[in-house]
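May I ask for an example protein's residues together with how it folds?

___
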Amino acid sequence: MEVLRHFQRAGWPVAEVPVHWSHQRGSKVRPLDYPRFLRDLVRIRVPLPGPADALAAALFLAMAVALHSGRFFDPAHRYLTDSLQDQNQWEWFFAVTADNVAHLRNPLFSHLQGVPEGVNLMANTAMLGLSVPFTPVTLLLGPAVALSLVTTLGMAATAAAWYWLIVRRLTPRRGAAFAGAALAAFAPPMVSHANAHPNFVVLFMIPLIADRALRLCTGTRTTRDAVVLGLMAAYQLFLGEEALLLAALGMLLFAAAHAAASPRVAREAVRPLLRGLAVAAAVCLPLVVYPLAWQFSGPQSYTHIDHGPGTANTVPALLAFAERSLLAGDADRANALSLNPTEQNAFYGWPLLLLALAITVRLWRRPAVRALAFTAAAAALLSLGPRVHVPFADTTVPGPWALLAGLPLFESVIESRVAMICAPALGMLLALAIDRLAAARSPIARYAGLLTVGLALLPPVPAPLRSEPRAEAPAFFTDGTWKAYVRPGESLVPVPLPEPAAAEALHWQTSAGLGFPMPGGYFNGPYGDGDRSGVYGVPLRFTASLLRDVRATGVAPVIDGRARAETRADLAHWRAGALVLVPQPRDGALRTTVDELVGRPARWVDGVWVWDLHERR
């Protein structure tokens, strides 16, 4: 088989002769030889990783565990501090997906939040490509464990995938590939998103997609590679659509730059590439057309979402150090230059950017270096938004993102996230530089260069993600006491209602086994009343808005007959069976307000205040 494989790769002709296979007395072929033959065939087609590769994979796993060590060893009782409310949201996504799969319900929708309208899960980041396969883990060990495993193992797998691509395409030196892959998977923006957004850090399919697209350029096995590419793209769509969009943008930037650097190679590659992409699209679209139709036209779908001002990077943000930098982190400065701790999408630091510039100048003759450098620079420039603030001046100039900002899909992208494209591009430049230094004849040049690289890489080294003990869900939810207050078809109304800024009620709901639906919530949906622009959470009705204001101010307002009538209408709209207030800051004003709204005092039951609405009926 090895000889035939060598002939095939060399393009030599092989004569095929038909053979009749039969077992005769004295035959040396035994039953166990068949699985051995298949094993050897797999080894030839898919070579086993060597010791260096296995060590790299083990180190990537150790790095991912160390990063998540604050939660990884006790995920059910620890909460990532900088995740804000996203850990609650993601655990809910995993829990509701497992519940839908276990009960053979539509995995693209749920009625458990946003009563009575529900949640379009395909229009949210439910990550069905992993939340569905992880259903057994979620059901057996809980959504907190499932989410922790997905994020930790996914980051390690992503680093391993970048390592594989660099070894295959750029350099066979394992040390250089390890350094480049580590930067690609654990760069400051990735660490920031590791707090809250697994769809942006579990990217193991992206290097595989990039490699398969490069294979199309050779034109050797276009149809086979295109079919595989189509299947990979379809799967990535269920892992993260925005990540796939950014990856496609990054590959387009790289292709344009490489074509300019090597026109002859581009001319030879364009026809098989376009033909292969057409086949890949023909394979991918039938698999995703229904989920995408549900996402954009199904119940609770929306056309786009406006993230508001301040979503672009600035030049200082690209040069500054990340909050979680082990040696140079500055939380105040990082938060001043970003939306929040989960969206620190730049912060590569000036030493790393200077190193990338030096690598580009030194290795400029290589087309791959020019293409990678252009990709990183263009992505960084696009991330500055449609209006770029000029450093040291009180003025702005038009940015290239203005050309994309109004296009479908791009209009919902947080433009600062485009800088995440820089991470793999910088990682590959780093790998090429280390490969060149390792081959240097002069020991002085070699070690001085490696020392410079090491010093530039120190600031991006992250500290473990911050975590804190998690508040236990009240016994009212965990012991099933809620069942006495919520009848079939009714909802349980937390006071105040859950929203993106305060979504602990999602944790109470998952702790109760998703036994009751509730109004409000933390998800993306339409604004309502004919307006299909997207919002976080749901538009606030009178009662929800009133209770949120009371929580914010701690002042119980005067309740009149009109307020009671509005509350009765809201409770009817939500099909509420009971209201529940968990002890929290300013809960005295909240309890007084609800007492007045429903016309009677609450009862203390298993750690919560309860207003049973059936008593009035």
